């Protein structure tokens, strides 16, 4: 039987095989989170790899108080925030447009459509998208999110509020467009 | 859940309008499992790289420590006043650094409460 706590313990003590096993088990989950967060395949691949490298460096500090997946999500989210700070807003916009188009194209190939839900999610600012995904899709509480992102609870609340409001507005707009 | 234990309205809205499409998206981008041998090599390589970096940093630390020690001993040999001034400056610097770091931490805790 898969006993995550025991594997985490071994990995934290420096066992390479256990750490590799944990990363293998969570690789797809991590990639899927980062892809929804960035809406950019290239960025998602880079961020997934960066997160794994950080996890290898920091595994000794992981005490197993949360699930390993939660720990990975926290690392990926913080790395994504750091990256966003590094890039200038304007440059980011031009790049995001191109990558969003390419993700849309690939998703059409894999899912046969580009759902309104993804279009609406893609319209959010990345920090709002992160807060909304963590709260409503992954089910973390506001306090847990604040701790994961090392951000005040008030900021998390306002990002969630603004994000979900914007999502509802976008979805209503798409529904109206379709019905007219 | 809201304070009364009922699922909050926004969560219900999200589950109704977003969840299934996002799950489909996840399924569409499910990644194939990584090769365990390759992953082990990846972990091992990064560990070795970290060790090398640690040794480099340690060597740099010892060199800086030796320089500081030489400067301090030189100052002590030359004049007691210069030595005292250097010690006072280092002490003030340390207090300032700790003060700023603690201040930031308290500010963050205060914002979170």
Description:
The complex is a heterodimer of chains A (180) and B (113). With 180 residues, chain A is mainly α. Chain A has two domains: 1-114, Rna Polymerase Sigma Factor, Chain: A (Orthogonal Bundle), CATH 1.10.1740.10; 116-180, Winged helix-like DNA-binding domain superfamily/Winged helix DNA-binding domain (Arc Repressor Mutant, subunit A, Orthogonal Bundle). In chain A, 82% of the residues lie in helices and 0% in strands. Chain A has nine helices and no strands. Chain B is mainly α. Chain B has a domain at 79-113. Helix content of chain B is 85%, strand content 0%. Chain B contains three helices and no strands. Chain B has helices at 9-28, 36-78, 80-112. At the A-B interface, helix 2, helix 3, helix 5, helix 6 and helix 7 of A face helix 1, helix 2 and helix 3 of B. Chain B: Keywords: Membrane, Transmembrane, Transmembrane helix. Chain B: It holds the Pfam family DUF5345.
Topology readout:
The complex is a heterodimer of chains A (180) and B (113).
Chain A: H1 4-12, H2 16-38, H3 41-58, H4 68-86, H5 89-111, H6 116-123, H7 126-137, H8 142-149, H9 153-179
Helix pairs in contact in A: 1-2, 2-3, 2-4, 3-4, 6-9, 7-9, 8-9
Chain B: H1 9-28, H2 36-78, H3 80-112
Brief digest:
Chain A: Belongs to the sigma-70 factor family. ECF subfamily. The complex is a heterodimer of chains A (180) and B (113). Chain A contains 9 helices and no strands.
Biggest β-sheet strands, sense, barrel of chain B: none
| SSE-based structural type of chain A | mainly alpha
For the secondary structure, the number of strands of chain A is 0
> What is the string of SSEs of chain A from the N terminus onward?
HHHHHHHHH
N/C terminus separation of chain B = 21 Å
Shape of chain A: globular
Low-confidence stretches of chain A: none
Shape label of chain B: elongated
Query: What's the CATH class of the largest domain in chain A, please?
Result: Mainly Alpha
Low-confidence stretches of chain B: none
Percent strand of chain B equals: under 5%
How big is the Rg of chain B?
A: 28 Å
The CATH homology group name of the largest domain in chain A? RNA polymerase sigma factor, region 2, helix turn helix motif
Number of continuous helical runs of chain A: 9
Considering residues with a beta carbon less than 8 A from a beta carbon on another chain, report the largest interface and each chain's count.
A-B, 38 and 31 residues
DSSP strand content of chain A: under 5%
- Here the CATH topology of the largest domain in chain A equals Rna Polymerase Sigma Factor, Chain: A
Total DSSP helices of chain B: 3
């Amino acid at each position: 039987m898969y006993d995550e706590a025991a594997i985490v313990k071994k990995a934290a003590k420096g066992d390479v095989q256990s750490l590799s096993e944990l990363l293998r088990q969570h690789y797809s989950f991590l990639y899927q989170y980062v892809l929804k967060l960035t809406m950019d395949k290239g960025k998602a691949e880079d961020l997934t790899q960066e997160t794994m490298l950080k996890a290898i460096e920091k595994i000794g500090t992981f005490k197993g108080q949360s699930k390993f997946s939660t720990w990975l999500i926290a690392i990926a989210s913080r790395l994504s925030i750091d990256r966003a700070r590094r890039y200038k807003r304007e440059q980011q916009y031009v790049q995001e447009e191109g990558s969003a188009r390419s993700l849309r194209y690939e998703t059409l190939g894999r899912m046969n459509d580009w759902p309104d839900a993804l279009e609406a999610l893609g319209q959010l600012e990345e920090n709002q998208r992160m807060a909304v995904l963590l709260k409503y899709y992954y089910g973390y509480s506001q306090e847990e999110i604040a701790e994961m992102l090392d951000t005040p609870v008030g900021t998390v609340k306002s990002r969630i509020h603004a994000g979900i409001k914007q999502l509802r507005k976008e979805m209503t707009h798409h529904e109206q467009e379709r019905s007219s | 859940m809201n304070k009364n234990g009922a699922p909050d309205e926004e969560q219900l809205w999200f589950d109704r309008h977003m969840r299934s499409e996002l799950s489909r998206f996840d399924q569409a981008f499910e990644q194939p499992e990584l090769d365990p041998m390759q992953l082990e090599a990846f972990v091992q390589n990064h560990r070795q790289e970290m060790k090398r970096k640690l040794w480099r940093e340690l060597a740099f630390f010892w060199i800086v420590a030796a320089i500081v020690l030489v400067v301090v001993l030189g100052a002590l040999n030359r004049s007691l006043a210069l030595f005292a001034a250097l010690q006072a400056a280092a002490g003030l610097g340390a207090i300032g650094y700790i003060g700023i770091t603690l201040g930031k931490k308290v500010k963050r805790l205060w914002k979170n409460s």
